[in-house]
Write a structure and sequence with these properties.
There is one protein chain. The protein is about 30% helix and about 20% strand. With about 400 residues, it is α/β, with parallel strands linked by helices. A hairpin with a 5-residue loop joins strand 5 and strand 6 (about 105-110). The chain starts with a strand and ends with a strand. The mean pLDDT is about 90.
């Protein structure tokens, strides 16, 4: 089954008309995208967008063989003109199946948002799933047979990809292609970086894919360290890296700090950002979690883990520090990094980068700064990917 992506952008396209934002200003050349539309084997057109005939011609394809045009999402704005010779666009009711004379079978999938998803089985038995912008499947049951290719709004609805993975509809060999790309994420390297973290990819408009063919996509790093200063966006970046995966265990190392209303507000803001399928545990005992098998771990953050460890070994007292405290802390850090090296779980950890600022005025502050630098260095050594977040911008340091 051959798929030609006539467009890969949001319904308004990218850049959006008359939009002054920086992302739209950068959406040039291969990063410019028409509204998403997929031509299947020259016979089935999923979503009719303005200029479809010209888009097909640019891709070296023709619409003259199209036998069915299906719409997946409500269209805002003026009606799209149907090119001469194309059948009138329609929509398959949820749960119903349509069989084309060409041998393609199309089943309509119910969504949790307005619109319809389409599961297409080609004459060769290969299977495609196409979802509209902002839509995720409703009522999926496991186990499901994995699709060869899934085309969906990865950046706008990462939880849709998580649901598909949870049921088995997306497996290790599934080619996940992002469409409906909008100006919410800067085009170019940033889009590719975020999609790679989700095990997905984007292709330029006009690309033709073969369902079931192997496509090399960067492996999702098993261990990632995200560094950054205060309010740099490091926690958001860490959460974003796992939001397309189900059953994440969020490990909060900061505790509840009873009576501290400002801290409670920070914790609440973090909780509201997390997908509802994630579980949370509050602990600084990380080694047993790393040794156990289970879903991905998100540890936020190592800075607070170090505070707890230094409290435990008496690091703030010079006498205790000299009388075994320093050695005890080194042992704790070594046990943690050894567990990171041996873990089989996917791990994303957050830590503060504090070594570039003003030298602390107190001896205890300088000790903490130095030990955090050592911890970050040792932890990073065991990670396939290390990221630095500055002013909301993510800079890969490794991987």
């Amino acid at each position: 089954m051959e798929l030609t992506l006539l467009g890969t952008g949001a319904p308004a396209g990218l850049p959006r008309p008359d939009c002054p934002c920086a992302a739209c200003a950068c959406a040039l050349g291969p990063d410019a995208r028409a509204a998403a539309s997929v031509l299947v084997d020259g016979a089935l057109l999923l979503d009719l967008t303005p200029g479809a005939a010209f888009a097909a011609a640019r891709a070296g394809r023709s619409l003259t063989g199209v036998r069915q045009v299906l719409l997946s999402h409500p269209h805002d704005g003026p009606a799209v003109e149907v090119p001469a010779g194309l059948p009138q666009p329609g929509r398959v009711p949820d749960g119903r199946e349509l069989t084309l004379l060409t041998g393609h079978r199309v089943r309509a999938m119910a969504l949790d948002a307005p619109g319809t998803g389409y599961a297409v089985t080609g004459p060769d038995g290969q299977r495609l799933l196409y979802l509209p912008p902002g839509g995720a499947p409703a009522g999926l049951e496991a186990p499901a047979e994995p699709y060869a290719t899934v085309v969906l709004d990865v950046l706008g609805r990462p939880d849709a990809l998580a649901r598909l993975r949870e049921t088995g509809a997306v497996g290790p060999a599934t080619d996940v292609v992002a469409v409906h790309l909008d100006h919410d994420v800067p085009p170019g390297p940033e889009v590719r970086r975020r999609l790679a973290a989700a095990g997905a990819r984007a292709v330029p408009d006009g690309t033709t894919l073969e369902a079931g063919a192997y496509e090399e996509v960067p492996d999702v790093p098993r261990r990632t360290l995200v560094l950054g200063g205060a309010r740099s966006g490091k926690s958001v970046e860490a959460e974003r890296r796992l939001e397309s995966f189900p059953e994440v265990l969020y490990v909060a190392t900061g505790g509840s700090r009873n009576g501290d209303t400002e801290w409670a507000a920070r914790v609440s803001a973090h909780q509201e950002r997390r997908p509802g399928s994630w579980r949370t545990v509050e602990t600084c005992d990380l080694v047993p979690l790393l040794k156990d098998d289970g879903p991905p771990l998100l540890v936020d953050c190592l800075s607070l883990w170090l505070t707890d460890a230094m409290d435990t070994v008496g690091a703030w007292d010079d006498a205790e520090w000299a009388d075994g405290g320093e050695r005890a802390l080194r042992d704790r850090v070594r046990a943690l990094t050894d567990a990171v090296r041996e873990t089989r779980r996917t791990l994303v950890a957050v830590s503060n980068e504090v070594g570039s600022g003003i030298v602390p005025a107190t001896a205890s502050g300088r000790r903490y700064r130095d030990e955090l630098g050592r911890l970050n260095t040792a932890f990073a050594q065991e990670c396939e990917q290390v990221l630095l977040v500055v002013a909301g911008q993510t800079l890969p340091l490794r991987g």
